[in-house]
Amino acid sequence: MKKPVWAIIGGGNGGQAMAAHLGTMGFQVRIYDVKEENVEVINKQGGIQFEDGVVDGFGKVEFATMDMGKAVVGADMVVIVAPALYHKDIATKMAPHLVDGQFVFIHPGATCGSLEVRKVLDDEGCKADIVVGEAMSLLYAARSPRFGVASILGIKEELMVAAMPSNKTKEMREILNLAFPQMYAGENVLETSFENLNCMVHPGPSLLNVAQIESGRDWKYYYDGITPSIGAYVEKMDAARVELGKKYNLKLTNILDWYVKLYSAKGETLTEAVNNTKAYADISGQKTLRTRYILEDVPMSLVPLAELGKVAGVRQDMVETMIDLGEFLMGEEFRKNGRNAAALGIEGMSVEDLLKYVTTGKKN
Fold first, then answer.
1. What is the pLDDT of residues 263-314, one digit of tens each?
2. Checking DSSP bridges between strand 131-135 and strand 183-185, what pairing results, if any?
3. Which is catalytic among the residues 33, 97, 238, 297?
4. pTM of the full predicted structure?
5. For residues 316 and 124, what is the distance between their CA atoms, to the nearest angstrom?
């Protein structure tokens, strides 16, 4: 298989890390960003420099650009590496430029990212025969201390991916595996969505730590924030997620087993597991509620999870409670503005309809 051309859409922490990593592997890669200074620095350097991480060297980049068309045209794998809040806008901008045979890979998709992007492309009249796929989470723990510089602090040893339609997952994974052999196939994009653990460990603990957040004191998000009671709440919410997955013929992994799998962190409870996760040692707690843990993870992860429950006729009470609390505390309309059924293009669908859609790409 010939080496694919990669277009990385997003010049933040994850985007610069991925573009530079691909560059060090000898792949042809270009990067799109909305920040002019970042684009100028990368072009002047001819790529992105690594420092202070597990990957060393210099990642050559073909070019950086603020022109979506220039970034996308000629790319085999178009990778969206940006917060889920921006996926809709990115899909709108790229829709006119996509051509037959391309893959649009959302890294990560959060919950139901592929469904949202597919809906946007359809609404924008994109007729290209392309495949939309997603990753369960971000491959890297990464930082970009300044423009044109990336630091990869860690790389996951395995990462689930899936395509929509799912009969294209094998083809997509084969291309991804040329650079990232640790990416393995999930059943479909519902499995990668259900296994998005951010919606378990971000919004709930944040909302339930509001007093600590607004106290102004320094605290550790996981070590101090996931107390026994909060941990127990998340575990029950997670158990409901696993049960809901069965309605979609999915055998999901519970959160405690994921901690063993991803971090080799064991614990009888979630609180014990996170306290045994060395990667969390330096993660400080936020000092405002207005962070991505709520502003992104509630509308883009909890809302679609609740919608998947409605399709299956199973109310996700603990999820709905967190959405309510988020709306009350933040003064936001997360259900209206998030990934609801209309935004995902699944209004009126049954479980069988949705499974057919993610498997074949066709609606009844």
1. 889 999 999 999 999 888 888 999 999 999 999 999 999 999 999 999 999 9
2. unpaired
3. 297
4. 0.94
5. 32
Q: Which amino acid is at 42?
A: I
State the catalytic residue, choosing from 21, 97, 202, 238: 202
How high is the pLDDT of residue 122?
97
Contact between residue 49 and residue 19 where contact means Cβ atoms under 8 Å apart: no
How far apart, in whole angstroms, are the C-alpha atoms of residue 287 and residue 237?
25
In the annotation, is 324 catalytic? no
Parallel/antiparallel/unpaired status of strands 131-135 and 159-164: antiparallel
Evaluate whether 139 touches 165 at the Cβ level (below 8 Å).
no
Question: Is 297 a catalytic site residue?
Answer: yes
Helix (H, G, I), strand (E, B) or coil at 357: helix
Show the tokens assigned to 140. Answer: 């890297």
- Contact (CB, 8 A) for 286 and 206: yes
Our CA angle for 87, 93, 98, nearest 5°, is 100
H or E element that contains 176: helix 169-177
